[in-house]
């Protein structure tokens, strides 16, 4: 097996170069006319730029790294059934609604795994210009600045990102559980891009994040960054995340994660619902 000869630094540098190039097109595109369609529901948007950016990355990966497989949102990737080999998780635009409406707070997210183990992560917040990136084992960075190992944190002094969906009536989690968590934080935020929210947790400017439904391309890169700085990530009920499936996600500084998990577990024991699928 040749896999231990993989040059992760090379791959990392390629990804950084590619997100910067694709980011230039996205910056031009937000100023012009976007072709917006909805997919599964009126709030599930896709634009010409989501598709174009995904195709851009897929061409790059297929040309430079032919044996690698790609899991991506808009359907141009591979049908991946196992975590064998080298897998790229690509979200060409994370936060499409922000891209269309806010014209900011969207990201390109690229996470690369070998045999299910995170190796390289790049999250590019296009309009702010910040790149969160790492090669596993070599530290995580925002631009050129190395990120600190996360402290344990505590819920009562934490800022946790929670989408309003989960605080309102929904079929995946009893909003009472989520409100219970929110009430014990210092404050909550919602930025509309899971990739950016995960990068913020890695950076330590958010202490936690909860979502009931994320796809592998949403969390693939963020998870590698969080691991690198010593954060904790599971499904909301504490089960391990499944790399190739849609998951709920509970992520944060170790102590904050543990406290949030306790509220979820107490809720479940008290008969409140949590629905993974
Ligand atoms: C979405 C964003 C959003 C999260 C959704 C994702 P998309 O990704 O990350 O913050 O709440 O679950 O689907 O569709 O904009 O790439
Ligand atoms: Ca989408
Ligand atoms: Ca996404
Ligand atoms: Ca997307």
Please give a structural write-up.
Strands 3-4-5-6-7-8-9 form a 7-stranded mixed β-sheet, with helices on both faces. The protein has a 5-stranded mixed β-sheet with strand order 11-10-12-14-13, with helices on both faces. The protein has 2 domains: 3-146, Fructose-1,6-Bisphosphatase, subunit A, domain 1 (Fructose-1,6-Bisphosphatase, Chain A, domain 1), CATH 3.30.540.10; 155-269, D-Maltodextrin-Binding Protein, domain 2, CATH 3.40.190.80. Helix 1 (8-31) runs antiparallel to helix 2, helix 4 (175-183) packs antiparallel against helix 7 (254-269) and helix 5 runs parallel beside helix 6. The mean pLDDT is 97. It has 7 helices and 14 strands. With 277 residues, the chain is of the alpha+beta class. Strand 5 (107-114) and strand 6 (117-125) form a beta hairpin. The protein starts with 7 loop residues before the first helix and ends in an 8-residue tail after the last helix. The radius of gyration is 18 Å and the shape is globular. It binds D-MYO-inositol-1-phosphate and calcium ion (3 copies). Pfam families: Inositol_P.
Q: Percent helix among the residues?
A: 25-40%
Give the structural class: alpha+beta
State which percent range the strand residues make up.
Answer: 25-35%
Q: Assign the CATH superfamily of the largest domain.
A: Fructose-1,6-Bisphosphatase, subunit A, domain 1
Which stretches of 5+ consecutive residues score pLDDT under 50?
none
For the biggest sheet, the summary is: 7 strands, mixed
What is the string of helix and strand elements? HEEHEEHEEEEEEHEHEHEEH
The figure for the number of domains is: 2
Overall radius of gyration: 18 Å
Mass-distribution shape:
globular
Figure out the total of helices: 7
The count of β-strands is 14
CATH architecture of the largest domain: 2-Layer Sandwich
Mean pLDDT over all positions: 97
Gap from first CA to last CA: 37 Å
Ions, cofactors and other ligands present here are: D-MYO-inositol-1-phosphate, calcium ion
Report the top-level CATH class of the largest domain: Alpha Beta
Order of neighbouring strands in the sheet with most strands: 3-4-5-6-7-8-9
CATH fold node name of the largest domain:
Fructose-1,6-Bisphosphatase, Chain A, domain 1
